[in-house]
Amino acid sequence: MARTFIRGFTLLIPRLALRNLLRNTRRTVLTVLLIGCSLGALILTDAVMIGMVKVMVESLTTTFAGEAQVHRQGFRDNYDVDLYLPDSAAIEQQLEAEPTVAAYASRVISGGMITSSYNVTAGMIYGVNGPQEARVGKLAQAITKGEYLQGNASELLIGAPMAELLEVDIGDRIVLTLAEADSGELAQALFRVSGIFEFGVRELDANLVFIDLQRARQVLDLGNASHEIAIRFTAASAADLDPNCILKTLNSGDIEALGWRALNKDVNAMLDMTGYSSFIVGAILFLLASLGVINSMFMSIYERIYEFGVAKAIGTRPRDLFRLILTEALLLALLSCVVGMLLGFGLGHWYGINGIPMGEMEVAGIAMNNNIPTVLAGYQFTTFPLYVILLTLLAALYPARFAAAIVPAEALHRSL
């Protein structure tokens, strides 16, 4: 008869576990909410991290820099005007024939003095091809006043902060003073402000001016050479992850072709750390949730200690009580996962559409002044709930072991 009871008890474990959870609905609901909110917070936190990384990468690559750049070795160290690409046309032909390249833009770059009738400042002068630049970056969209480059020799685009400093407006004259390549002789050229831009990045708006590419080459006596070729790929990963990428082909001799990660090592290191952020947040949340599970289980056990004592007195095996407590924990975890996934999906979807208002801030030198949209991913609703179940069961091991080790005589005596 004892064996029959034990077999029946084993078969009834899931039903008993569910009944025990429903005996104290308030405690069960609070525990489910605790674990579920932890899961929902973890999903939302990870979605925010992915969204922030996406915004940072887009701000870094699509604003102006591009997803990859080609230079002479050492040019990026101090922007030496003498370190130019003498055969930039051949590189452009390679890029033109490469199917993974969506667009490219040749640039001439030089430091110089920018002088108006009222003031003078130092800055970086970029000679660019208007149509090419419009396909690689957001210079054309950044124009707030005047017009974009039309290919005229005298046109100049200036950032709003620099225009304010120089007290110039559309149509005003600007004199650029630069050092010619190779010879180092000073050259001056007169331009008129044709447009004022605002990228929203202080470093760019306050320090850069743009002129026509051919005029820049003429002033610097560069012939048809360029200092930089910015590249945009059909898929951003091609800049770093494709082993057969065009960048590998271009890296030869004194030419260096680098993806955006190699060009921005500080940002790359910070992005690599974002995964640890989700781990740390998850660890803290589920440590607190685990304490809640342990507390809930022990309260449930102490309420039923007489029942456990009777069950063991008539022959119930300790492992069956152990399985009962773990089954209760499993049901708690499953209910919590449903609540957490619904909460995480709801908040993630809403913030994915409306974005999280973060205000203006700068992260690793990248200015961000837009709402950060959350990005939901499939693993957040598969891997994270699995972790919740495993950690909940792990937290329930100690209460389950305690219940299995109950001595019937002590349990019955304590309940009297």
**Which structural category fits the helices and strands?**
alpha+beta
Helix content: 40-55%
* Contiguous uncertain segments of 5+ residues: none
Task: Please compute the radius of gyration using only Cα atoms.
Answer: 33 Å
**Mean pLDDT over all positions:** 84
Count of individual beta strands: 12
- The portion of residues forming beta strands comes to 15-25%
In DSSP terms (H or I, runs of 4 or more residues), the helix count works out at: 15
Spatial arrangement of strands, main beta sheet: 2-3-8-5-7-6
**Ends apart, CA distance between termini:** 27 Å
Major sheet: 6 strands, mixed, barrel
Order of helices and strands: HHEHHEEHEEHEEHEHEHEHHHHEEHH
Which word captures the global form? Answer: elongated
Q: What can be said about this structure in brief?
A:
It is built from 15 helices and 12 strands. The chain is of the alpha+beta class. The strands form 2 sheets. The chain has a 6-stranded mixed β-barrel, surrounded by 4 helices.
Describe the structure.
With 416 residues, the chain is an alpha+beta fold. Helices cover 55% and strands 19% of the residues. The protein is built from 15 helices and twelve strands. The protein has helices spanning 2-23, 25-65, 75-78, 88-97, 130-136, 160-166, 202-205, 213-220, 246-250, 260-263, 265-303, 305-313, 318-354, 383-404, 408-415, and strands at 68-72, 101-115, 120-128, 143-146, 155-159, 173-179, 186-197, 208-212, 228-233, 255-259, 361-363, 366-368. The strands form two sheets. The chain has a six-stranded mixed beta barrel, surrounded by four helices. Helix 2 (25-65) packs across helix 13, helix 11 packs parallel to helix 14 and helix 12 (305-313) packs across helix 15 (408-415). The chain is elongated and about 100 Å long.
